[in-house]
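Shift notes (night). Ran Putative membrane protein YphA (DoxX/SURF4 family) while the centrifuge was going.
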Amino acid sequence: MKNKQGLPQLFLRLALGAGFLGAGLDRFGVWGPAGAPGISWGDWQHFMEYAYKLMSFLPYGVAEFFAAIASGAEVSFGLLLIAGLWTRWAAMGSGLLTFIFAMAMARAFGIQSPLNYSVFTASAGSFLLSSLPAYRWSLDNMLKKRKEANASPGNILSV
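Came back to this:
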């Protein structure tokens, strides 16, 4: 049976990756300054105002530490998903990260907030992506094919 998930998984991988990368880089002002059209935060200070609302039960320094870890993870997951490298792990990590984010949003602002921003949808999409058997048009697939070619019986270097 032929795998017909090539284009849908590519679209899901790129959409999730771009979303994580875009949001993560916004916190560092890459897309423009705070207050500019289309910019959510524009700098770390404005992002932390929001992040602290999500984690108001923690001391500010601890919340900032978790926000930095989450931001680094988002940028990393975004890059890995776009490239298709360690896709299964990046998708599992991004699914867990967005689920935790959705729960924090629901706790801080009510359940409608993560629903309005499709955070549960992003989490579910990430978990679905992690469950796929293969990732066509990815570095993972290219590396797998290279490894199989090098391990073939006719290859003297594989001994």
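The first helix runs from residue 6 to 26. The two ends are 32 Å apart (CA to CA).
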